[in-house]
């Protein structure tokens, strides 16, 4: 005869087994739109997918199709229509919907990309969430790239006059205006991959991009001069998000896994992933004989004056959405600098 206690244990184990089996078939499709050698995949998407599968004990599978399911500018529509469950997008492609987060792209405010990523998430939660700019999707995280440098094919840029006559590849509308203010001719395209084509083909003289692009977009062979800036020459903001219905359909245990690995935890991980990938480019700088220049205080002062419009434009957008713009701005700067100090 089996004792009453043993019967209870067996029944409990059987129930647990059934619950485990019921959760075993969850597969989420995550679109990969950037090159698989890029920081987006190596530093963000791949490690997150691996952590989700490990944390869920294999109950959640992350499927990543070999080819993108939609062009880069259509990631939001791809997810909301259910073609993919999860994706990332540069915020430049959702700027008509999401304006408040562009605070994080302002040059020279945050010491590094990890601090900026943590700070923009906390600022979003404290000041921006009620504006409901992410209506229609499940926001999983926000982050910025490791910070922009200036990578030049032939000529160094160490003073404002050096920009004159230069064609510079840039990624965002604000950086288009900044390049114009510097005296350069900005060149942009919808695809980040175009940076390689433009640099390798000699169409541009340089690019505003992170060090990681030496690896991600194979710029090491074409970059001869690099200028770096205290507080970075701005950042590029990114969003990681999920189909709302797909999230809601998950079992509570599976939602808990997604929650645990998303939000501020994800933002810090993604920011660190980009910084780590940037640092992997340091040997390429030496191997390819790239000359690195630190922007002088005098040069920085001029650049700060010529990029003041970043703050002015953001303040106007924040006030239009009913946000206490100055309080949010001050909180972001304070949080970024405090976060950076804790990392030392």
Helix content: 40-55%
- The CATH topology of the largest domain, please? D-Maltodextrin-Binding Protein, domain 2
- Please state the second-level CATH architecture of the largest domain: 3-Layer(aba) Sandwich
Question: In CATH, what is the homologous superfamily of the largest domain?
Answer: Bacterial extracellular solute-binding protein, family 7
Question: What distance lies between the first and last C-alpha atoms, to the nearest angstrom?
Answer: 64 Å
Please give the count of helices. 14
Query: Which structural class matches the secondary elements?
Result: alpha/beta
- The count of domains is 2
Give me the count of strands.
Answer: 11
Radius of gyration based on Cα positions: 22 Å
| Contiguous runs where pLDDT drops below 50 for at least 5 residues | 15-20
Order of helices and strands: HEHEHEHEEEHEHEHEEHHHHEHHH
Mean pLDDT level: 92
Strand content: 5-15%
Largest sheet composition: 6 strands, mixed
Main-sheet strand order equals: 7-6-8-5-9-11
Supply the CATH class of the largest domain. Alpha Beta
* Shape by Cα distribution: globular
Condensed summary:
The protein has 344 residues and is of the alpha/beta class. The chain is built from 14 helices and eleven strands.
Explain what the structure shows.
This protein is of the alpha/beta class and 344 residues long. It has 2 domains: 26-144 and 235-277, D-Maltodextrin-Binding Protein, domain 2, CATH 3.40.190.170; 149-234 and 281-342, D-Maltodextrin-Binding Protein, domain 2. Helix content is 46%, strand content 14%. It is built from 14 helices and 11 strands. The protein has helices at 4-22, 39-55, 75-80, 113-128, 173-182, 194-200, 213-216, 244-249, 252-260, 264-280, 282-287, 297-306, 309-320, 325-342; strands at residues 26-29, 60-63, 86-90, 138-144, 149-152, 167-169, 185-187, 206-209, 225-228, 237-242, 291-294. The strands form 3 sheets. Strands 7-6-8-5-9-11 form a 6-stranded mixed beta sheet, sandwiched between helices. Strands 3-10-4 form a 3-stranded antiparallel beta sheet. The protein has a two-stranded parallel ribbon with strand order 1-2.
